[in-house]
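Ex. 9. Protein: Arabinan endo-1,5-alpha-L-arabinosidase.
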Amino acid sequence: MRACLFLAAAVFCAAAAQAQSTSTYRNPLPVRLPGGAPAQNCADPAVLRDPRAATPTWYLYCTTDPVSHAEREPGEQGGWKFRLMPIYRSQDLVHWDYVADAFADRPPPAAPKAGLWAPEPHYHDGRYWLYYTITDVVDVASPEPGCDNDSAIGVAVADSPAGPWRASPKPVVPPRRVDGATSGCKFDWTFDPDVVTDTDGTRYLYYGSYGGGIFVQRLAADGLSVEGEPRQVGTSWRYEGAEVVRHDGMWYLFASATDCCAGPLTGYALHVGRAVSPLGPFLDRHGEDMAAVRAGGTPVLPQNGNRWTGPGHNTVFQDAAGQWWTMYHAIDLNEPFFAPGLTRRVALLDRVDWVGGWPIVAGGGGPSDELLPAPAATADAPARPPVRVHGSGADLHLLWRDDFAKPPAPPWRWIRDPGTWQAGARGLAWSTQPGDLHVDTNSAPLLARPLPAGDVRIETRVRLDAPDDCCASNAQAGLVALGDDDNYVKLVVLAGRGLHQVEFAKEQKPVPAGYPRYGNTVAGTPAGADGWTWLRLDVRRAGGLERWTAWSSQDGRDWVGGGTWTHQLGAGARLALAAMGGGGRAATFGPVTVSRLGPAFGAAPGLQAGARRARDATSARP
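Predicted structure tokens for Arabinan endo-1,5-alpha-L-arabinosidase:
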């Protein structure tokens, strides 16, 4: 009897300990390899809840990549072992255990060294489907001999979410040549599949990436090909990693912008738009189209200056009790690489709430790095506490303002000759020069003056004369906060390759060998060709570290957040205006103001990005 009581108590205590361990979680997620060793990489994560499991069970699929420092294999890139889309299983959405790799070898039509990226699991008609990117194909109708970038979408089928997987020998979406190209190694990027099912049972496949844009097309009934005309839903050179979900009768496209894999200077970030149909168009909060040249998309998960940078390529799903979540990858600034050039991307999890018809991730505060309530593993789990919404407004005290009605005078001074310029009622104007401020090219003219110490807000408005088809060479105009030409943050309206966006970039030097010096992310949509775009930089300083946060606006009232870079520009930092590249594009700057920045308050970015009116102005002139 005593033994039975002891055994029952042990079982009860073990169950209680497990329940307690999964009542909270903290990023990154514990993803375990055979034997319990931690997996140190899960890029492009995708989650599938097994509809046939007796108890809630989820499967996690990751892109082809190294997963551990301990796994080395001669013959692979740099001696690293690349697992071909590893699969993990969980019953609580927090702890994940390795099950298998999707493939032991690259299946046809993949070339021997092709990447198998961005797995998309899908359950349909009693079987499990796994769609994926093939970066280089062979033995299809129109490959280019010797070309390694004729990418395609492949598919495999299994009777279990863990496989074994039987790959179709033909791609679902074959390589697509760049418009007008009939030969040569010129292909659009056919990457990053995502599958949704409409209310009438029609299935759609999203695919594409920076090179050519994101498209949606109807899946054939057999799931092995697409049919009908493709429709573009994401513009070229702006988005990749489409993830589409339906909520309250609307369709939401999550997509990632900028470079996924620049180590500690990765500025990858999630943006969102919504549509009444899975075919789009997907419009952001301001009605801007994510497929437009002046790219729409509301930032929904920008980096926030903590240990995580480059959050993106997400999957969105519900836990056992119906709460929405997103899993995505990000880079740990403490360990950004497996080796220089091979970025390490770990799996993070954050809650999604729907406010006013729009998703808010992690309360609008960016990727989380604190202990949080875990997802529900059962349908009868206790209700989650209300989401904590992060502040975005602040009290302001105006320090100075310059409207450039008169020529700029000290403490303003020119760094490098701008050529012809003019000050007047419309502000300060000069033309972009064929120079740049990028790594070892430091030829752009700047108009600079010292920045005050402490926490400040910098605002201006800029008008860049750049039509929709501009420019073969990037034209840009905006704000720079710099210590010197190699250490700065930059917030500019940028036009290049027919894409217009608000870029927020960072450069630093020195850096360790093999590390990048420059990284960028993006904010909101710039104004039209004949309009003004407002730019804002907030800096908060603590312990020698500066957190620079970007905002942009089309009217100076409704602001869109654009992420945070950390830097150490120091006490001698200067504010500069820049207009560069794209030869001869007119740039005009309106008033520039610098204000003391008080504590944050208010709602999340995208919900209420306002600020109290600056008050107690000491001077309207510099």
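Check your answer against this statement. Residues 25-373 form a domain with the Tachylectin-2; Chain A fold (CATH 2.115.10.20).
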